[in-house]
Amino acid sequence: MEMFFRCSVKLSTQGVCRAIIYCMKKRSPLHAQDTLPVLPKQPILSRNKKFLTFTIGLFLFLFAMSFGTIAFGPNQFFLRDSGFFYYPLFEQIQHQWESGQLPLWDPYENLGQPLLANPTSSLFYPGKAIFFLSSLGFLSYGVCFKWYILLHFPLAFYWFYRLARHIGLSRAGSTLGATVWTFSGPILFATSNPVFLIGASWLPAGLLFADKTLRTGALRNATVFAAVLALMVLGGDPEAAWLCVVLSFGLAIIVFRRRKATVKIVFAHGGMLLAGIILGTLACAVVVLPGLDMKRSIDRGNPDAPLSVWDLAGSRFCGSPSASLASDSPLVPDATASEQNRPGTLDNILCRRLDHPGHASSIYRFSLPPWRLCELIFPNVGGDWVSGRGRWLAMLPHDDQLWTASLYAGTIPFLLAVWAVFPLFSRSKKKLPKYRTQGYRGWTIWLVFLAMLAAFGAFGPGWLIGVMGHGWDNDIRNGDPVGGLYWFMVVFMPQFATFRYPAKLTVLIVFALALLAGMGLDRLRTERSGAQVAIFAFVPSGILCVLAALFGPVLLESFNGQTFAGSMPLDALAVSRLLFWSFGQTALVAFLFWLTLTRAKTVPAIRKASLMIILVLTAIDLTWAHRYLIPSVPDEAYRSKSLVTQTIQDDLKGPNNPDSNLQPIRVWRGIEWNPFFLTQQKDRLQRAFALDRKTLAPKFSYANHLGIANVHGTGIEHTYRRFIEQLESLSRDESRQERMLEMLAQCNVRYLVLPWQNRQGQQTVLPHATLLDANTPRQYSMLDQPEQAFEHLDDPWPINTLVWRNDVPGNMLRIKTTGDASATLTLYTGSRIEFDVVCPNSCQVIVAEQYWNDWKSQAVSKANPEIVLTLATNRDTTTGFLRQLAIPAGTWHVTMEYRPTAVYWGLAVSLFVWVLLIAVWLFFGSFGISAAKIQVNTIKRLA
């Protein structure tokens, strides 16, 4: 056994491990004077069983009140991306697993595109193992999906509690912080986009083990830190991992500065942190490598001009996406016209073209308007977006993009956070209490301040200067983000330009506020004062509550029925009531908080239970404020089939579609606007969801073997994106609509789902397009009384939907030659296509799917099976984005298979690193062998 350990140690010090051992050498007992003092270990949970029971009960109460109808009933999440994106996507991925396929290719969007290369697929995230319970028949898919989301809430609560206890907060302070973090508005609303919820749930764990690594320099902590970073990326949120790395560097500055670390300590412990980052990146190589490979072909990786100084220095830009299209392409008329509008070298960096389509303009979408910060203390003060009441904040410009419906994190936590930052009315002449944070208070204060500035996004110095010079009436102008913190991150931080949406950083605001709230609660315990801070919320809130009740309807009456920034029609009476309850709730909670603190000084029973009373008040406050934030629909709503789908499937049974059961049927969807978002009906979101399903919104078509040919996003191959833009421009020109249908036929788009009328109220007419069942035209009304939905709208768009058949001949396989050549499809599984080709002479076969790298093709002669040819898969020169094969003369059976090299290399690297991480974690933990012992023995042997 001793020889085994000696050999293991010797082998581990060679090659890659030599650098790690060198870093670990600096904290050997031989250099004990250079080590950092380590904080005493804190218990994971309270040893006081009563408080432990109370903490668990508090979490269960909040969980049941927030998700009771979903977790323990037949209802399901449906809002935003969780409904039309992740639910059908994960279901399709699970179907591919069940059929024995590795889900690498998505055949249903934009004529096919890679699946694993998109991190949001979360293909190898360990948490998705729950979906295999549906494959085994234990649970339905709907139950698996909602619990896949719900189980991340106890995870977020647990890891935040661990982090708070680690930095020195008390059990009560840690419980308060975990409650605020887990059930705040931004985290609850993240159920509408599960990948960001996954990133938020793992963020405290990443910071916890980053700090442990910086303080101890232990390899075991570095491996756990690496695993957490990898889980964030595998879960679909690489931005959370990137931010965790940045915040860990901030922790390093705090730790090393406060402890006056020597250069040796900085090098050794910082090297361990860097090793964890590298190992974490390698552990998710199965996603990173395909993503980098895909990035070369999409807008995010090929901007029309540099997005950052890194792009500028490396010249990593390919010009206008239209440049890759042939200038004489008959499918894309006027393809070279966009060259005249090609941006300058610094246009994207200086944000001069925010009104142009593409990734450069979407980076700053969903910026947080500064005035929304009032929602941190007043619940729903901006308006109830979910239930349908008008948002009065939309009266201010630039408030049409709402990332999260609520920023509220509780009145008491906000007051405690203020109490932790400022020594207001402290009766003690002592300094602020020195929590065992060793600089964490300053780090947290800087975090909340910088996160606010970054979340403003497009509301940068350029916007402020424009408002001061031109007033509030102008829209967001080009150049507004320049000079802001988020602009600085995009331009100067590596790879940050590939992310989007500044408002996602609101989770960091809540994270910092939750930590400060816990610190404030601990300060109340030590100083036995602080009741005065509640007066600063109670008095103004009470005054505003009275003013809203008395003068709100009168002041808002002139705006009644008007719409602002794309919001709903303003209901003056409803908004005044909402303001009354918002200010009233803050005033009531602040008063109860003040009453608890004052009575605790004189009543022993209240003094003994004061911490629990504060926690219960916070729980009730959050529950009441967010009671509307998680709407749901019955899970059966995902299974309903629309008349649009039924019409297409009935038509496919005809003799003109012999291979319809083999391939996805392509549909062009022309419905771009949902009128239900501009109504005030209580179930408007549910109606919008039903309309999306009935009109085949993207990914709702998966379950019906239908593909949508025009799905917008920054992950589209840039050549195909330009093609979609050209088609949309043709659709608006009646004289060229026939050309549009011919172009769609080249892509095997057989059906068009269009509104009965266009925006101008004119009936939709397309030449050579046949209205199915023309004798009895189907006009699908999605509202019982549609006129009610447009009562206050100036530009109503009827929601009646038509299905048109494109009678221009089209097929999945097209012979690009003259003669008697033919091609017949025999097998289609998404990532594998087989077809027979008969060509007297050599010919070109065009496959109506997008060209991507790593499609491998071979042909087997049907006359002599021993003859096997490897065929080159190229881009079709006519379109620039379809696949083209050169077939020699003869009769051949051709097989095309998607075998991405980056995926297999990434999978091998990830498996190796995960095995290494688990082995190191078990080796250093189970056998009790410390890194210091290995270093001493290694140094002796190397010497």
Overview of this structure, please?
This protein is of the alpha+beta class and 943 residues long. The protein has 31 helices and 18 strands. Helix 7 (152-166) packs antiparallel against helix 8, helix 10 (194-216) packs antiparallel against helix 11 (219-234) and helix 14 runs antiparallel to helix 30. The chain is globular.
Give a concise summary.
The chain is of the alpha+beta class and 943 residues long. Strands 6-5-7-9-8 form a five-stranded mixed beta sheet, sandwiched between helices. It has a five-stranded antiparallel beta sheet with strand order 11-12-18-14-15, with no helix packed on it. Strand 5, helix 26 (684-694) and strand 6 (706-708) form a beta-alpha-beta unit.
* Low-pLDDT windows of residues: 1-47, 316-330, 332-338, 773-798, 926-943
Helical proportion, percent range: 40-55%
Number of strands: 18
How many DSSP helices? Answer: 31
The shape, in one word, is globular
Major sheet: size, sense and barrel closure?
Answer: 5 strands, mixed
Strand order of the largest sheet: 6-5-7-9-8
Nearest-angstrom radius of gyration? 30 Å
Structural class, by secondary structure, is alpha+beta
The chain-level mean pLDDT equals: 79
In whole angstroms, the N-to-C terminal distance is: 24 Å
- Fraction in beta strands: 5-15%
Layout of strands and helices, then pairs:
Layout: H1 2-12, H2 17-25, H3 49-71, E1 75-76, H4 81-98, E2 105-106, E3 113-114, H5 132-135, H6 141-150, H7 152-166, H8 171-182, H9 185-189, H10 194-216, H11 219-234, H12 238-258, H13 263-283, H14 285-295, H15 309-314, H16 359-362, H17 411-421, H18 440-456, H19 461-470, H20 485-492, H21 506-527, H22 532-556, H23 572-599, H24 604-625, E4 633-634, H25 643-652, E5 665-669, H26 684-694, E6 706-708, H27 718-731, H28 737-746, E7 749-755, E8 769-771, H29 786-789, E9 801-806, E10 813-815, E11 822-828, E12 832-839, E13 843-850, E14 855-861, E15 868-871, E16 873-875, E17 882-887, E18 890-898, H30 901-926, H31 931-942
Parallel strand pairs: 5-6, 5-7
Antiparallel strand pairs: 1-4, 2-3, 7-9, 8-9, 10-13, 11-12, 12-18, 13-17, 14-15, 14-18, 16-17
Helix pairs in contact: 2-13, 3-8, 3-24, 7-8, 7-10, 8-21, 8-24, 10-11, 10-12, 10-13, 11-12, 11-13, 11-30, 12-13, 13-30, 14-30, 17-21, 18-20, 18-21, 22-23, 23-24
